[in-house]
Backbone:
């Protein structure tokens, strides 16, 4: 059995331990979610019974906070003993327990109980990084809640602990905000999407592209959907980080509330892609809107970091929008970079004052990032070093290794992608970023699935795996300790097949 991500230490001994009927278990409150996840998978093969006395239990989960965070020790002999650092460590021990069983436990069943036995083994394990993420762009193409819930299961299989949900962008707004109903009505629906590739910017009209396929696209989450996602994630040991991108990437919000505009070009959420110059204005009213949005995500995503975007916000319209210009004049601000720095300070402080982590894209390094923010580096890997050296907590999400909207191959049968190829070899080189950069400021990293060209959940899965597994491996183990050829990944990809995931088959 290939365990992926590779544990720190695995020691097999002779013999196996058959699945019992019933499976008796004992743990305290922090271990109950982990047992539930095991039970979901094994319910077709056996029943589960909680017992009062630890010595009567086949599966015992205990806690020892001397273990490294998210760490666990797993002993399979005449019974199963788990000692975990915390709730998450218990969950990861359960994922390892599942990976030690035959692949069909990841499928819909039926299961043959007599075919299910664990090898006798001791595993000692803990992650290299505390931030091991996967990003979904539900703004460019909406993904229904069922997809997101299934994605969480795939993340947990890979011991990924952070789901970054990109909830708002020029092309659609997916977040319900009290007092702003038009966001998830007008702002959630665009009249179509450009066909094929984004054309090069028109030298006369700039980035504006009006032609589209005429197929309305949209959708938004309800408060109930979001609570379901957050709760399932919590059960699996995953934190959901919402991103509300501001002050750029806001055409959908501007379409819903034209008073947020800095120009009069926006009629509906954007049908094309690329960087939009139609950014939000910087009036008091617009900033109050942003504060309401921030307060909403603080409430809907308790305990989560909050991502405020901050990328790709050309501010050329700010100085031709009289109310914004008046405001900037009063502040003595004469450049777009200065205006964005002032804006970032206000919105980031709102999150920091609530006692939460605030994350922004690495462009803020150029404007002057507010103290205390966490920088997510998407551009060149050199910005990782720069952010760390400037004293910021940093997340490595550089496009060259972790943007999986980039196709894996240029083959003629590949689906359209923004650019290609980003091969498994490119992904396997990701860890070179932190080789020689031993700083606690580097929290970890994540892979991105921007969805301009990923129109369906099946396509997201195709672009996401197996490359995502190779990122998970490096963030957990520090480097690729498995190979990434078809034989090396035969078992991990078979698990994905069992789960119904449309991973990309090898060339
Ligand atoms: C980004 O790709 N603009 C974060």
Residues:
């Amino acid at each position: 059995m290939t365990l992926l991500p590779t544990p720190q230490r695995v020691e097999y001994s002779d013999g196996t331990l058959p699945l019992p009927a019933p499976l008796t278990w004992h743990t305290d409150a922090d271990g109950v979610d982990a047992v539930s996840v095991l039970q979901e998978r094994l319910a077709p093969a056996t029943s589960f019974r909680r017992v009062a006395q630890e010595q009567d239990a086949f599966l015992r989960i205990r806690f020892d906070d001397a273990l490294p965070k998210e760490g666990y020790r797993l002993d399979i002999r005449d019974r199963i003993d788990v000692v975990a650092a915390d709730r998450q460590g218990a969950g990861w021990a359960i994922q390892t327990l599942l990976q030690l069983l035959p692949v069909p436990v990841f499928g819909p069943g039926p299961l043959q109980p007599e075919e299910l036995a664990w090898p006798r083994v001791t595993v000692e394990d803990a992650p290299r990084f505390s931030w091991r993420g996967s990003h979904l762009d539900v703004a460019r193409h909406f993904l229904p809640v069922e997809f997101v819930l299934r994605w969480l299961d795939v993340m947990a299989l890979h011991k990924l602990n952070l789901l970054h949900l990109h909830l708002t962008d020029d092309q659609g707004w997916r977040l319900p905000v009290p007092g702003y109903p038009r966001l998830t009505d007008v702002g959630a629906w665009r009249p179509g999407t450009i066909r094929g590739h984004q054309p090069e910017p028109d030298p006369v009209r700039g980035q504006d592209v009006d032609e589209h396929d005429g197929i309305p696209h949209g959708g938004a989450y309800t408060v109930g959907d979001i609570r379901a996602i957050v709760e399932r994630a919590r059960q699996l040991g995953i934190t959901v980080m919402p991103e509300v991108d501001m002050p750029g990437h806001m055409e959908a919000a501007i379409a819903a509330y034209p008073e947020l505009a800095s120009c009069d070009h926006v009629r509906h959420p954007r049908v094309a892609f690329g960087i939009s110059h139609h950014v939000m204005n910087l009036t008091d009213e617009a900033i109050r809107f942003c504060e309401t949005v921030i307060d909403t995500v603080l409430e809907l995503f308790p305990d989560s970091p909050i991502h405020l975007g901050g990328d790709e916000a050309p501010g050329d319209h700010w100085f031709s929008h009289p109310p914004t210009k008046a405001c900037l004049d009063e502040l003595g601000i004469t450049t777009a970079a200065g205006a964005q720095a002032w804006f970032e300070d206000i919105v980031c402080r709102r999150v920091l004052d609530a006692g939460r982590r605030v994350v922004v894209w690495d462009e803020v390094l150029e404007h002057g990032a507010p103290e205390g923010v966490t920088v997510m580096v998407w551009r060149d890997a050199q910005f990782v070093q720069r952010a760390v050296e400037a004293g910021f907590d940093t997340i490595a999400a550089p496009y060259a290794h972790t943007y999986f909207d980039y196709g894996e191959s240029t083959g003629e049968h590949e689906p359209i992608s923004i650019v290609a190829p980003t091969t498994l070899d490119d992904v396997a080189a990701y860890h070179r970023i932190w080789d020689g950069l031993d700083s606690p400021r580097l929290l970890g990293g994540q892979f991105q699935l921007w969805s301009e060209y990923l129109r369906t959940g099946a396509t997201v899965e195709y672009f996401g795996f197996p490359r995502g597994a190779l990122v998970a491996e490096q963030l957990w183990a520090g480097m690729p300790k498995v190979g990434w050829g078809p034989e090396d990944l035969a078992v991990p990809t078979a698990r994905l097949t069992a789960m119904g995931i449309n991973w990309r088959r090898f060339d």
About this structure: The pocket of acetamide is lined by residues 311-312, 361, 378 (CB under 6 Å).
